[in-house]
Every structure is written in structure tokens, then in C-alpha cells.
Amino acid sequence: MARYVLDDQYTSSSGAKFPVKWCPPEVFNYSRFSSKSDVWSFGVLMWEVFTEGRMPFEKNTNYEVVTMVTRGHRLHRPKLASKYLYEVMLRCWQEVSASLCSLMICKTSSD
After folding, report:
1. Cα-only R_g, the chain
2. What is the DSSP string of 19-76?
3. What does the alpha-carbon distance between residue 61 and residue 9 come to, in Å, rounded to a whole number?
4. pTM (2 d.p.)
5. What is the residue extent of each domain of the chain?
């Protein structure tokens, strides 16, 4: 399956477009979406909130982001996020889809 990275979205050979900087590796490698990939995106949203709206991977092209994330690179801890909150983000960004946390992390983390 051929894959292309154009503009701010990822395009698969079937023509589907994805917002690369908010997607887990299984989305741009296998075009697999699930509630677990939503958790990854939620982690990126948290990162955006604690950076006061910065663009994730702002200095990298989509091609670079695909390569970096596939190799295990994750966004840095924002200055406004506590270590605990960054750990929550990292749990959202676990690579193996079976081990990705669910949004229940929000409920259990507030207990």
C-alpha cells in the first residue's frame, strides 16, 4: 500500500486524509482507526492545552513526523504540565495499540 504525506494531512493510497501530527503510528502505517487512536489524539490535545496552543511537531514536516513517531519519538513535556500530567500524555501515546490506554484514564486519574 503506497502512502503519501501532503500538506497537514496524511494521504493513503485509497485517498483518505489524516491529520498526521495527531495520529498514532497504526493510523498512518495501516489506516487503522479506533477509540484507542482517539486516545492518542486526546494526548496531543492535552499537549496543545499545556503549551498554550502550540502546533505539535511545529518544526517538522509530516514526513519527518511519521518517521519520528514510528521510531518512538514523543512530544516533549510542556512547561505548564506537571510530571504527573505528562505521564498521562505518555500513556496516551503508547505505541502498541493493545496497550494504549482508554479514556477511562481520566476517571481513574481523578480518583
Report:
1. 14
2. -GGG--HHHHHH----HHHHHHHHHHHHHHHHTTSPPTTTTS-HHHHHHHHHTT--PP
3. 11
4. 0.77
5. 3-110
Per-10-residue mean pLDDT, the chain, length 111: 46 68 87 81 97 97 94 97 97 72 60 50
- Backbone φ and ψ for 83, nearest 5 degrees, come out as -60, -40
The residues, any chain, with a CB within 8 Å of residue 89's CB and separated by 6 or more, are 43, 46, 47, 74, 75, 77, 81
User: First-to-last CA distance in the chain?
Assistant: 44
Q: Report the 10 Å Cβ neighbour count for 91.
A: 15
Q: Enter the C-alpha cell of residue 36.
A: 484507542
Residue 5's SS3 state is strand
Whole-number pLDDT of residue 16: 63
pLDDT tens per residue across span 64-79: 999 999 999 999 999 9
- Judge whether 7 and 68 are in contact, CB under 8 Å: no
Class of domain 3-110 as given by CATH:
mainly alpha
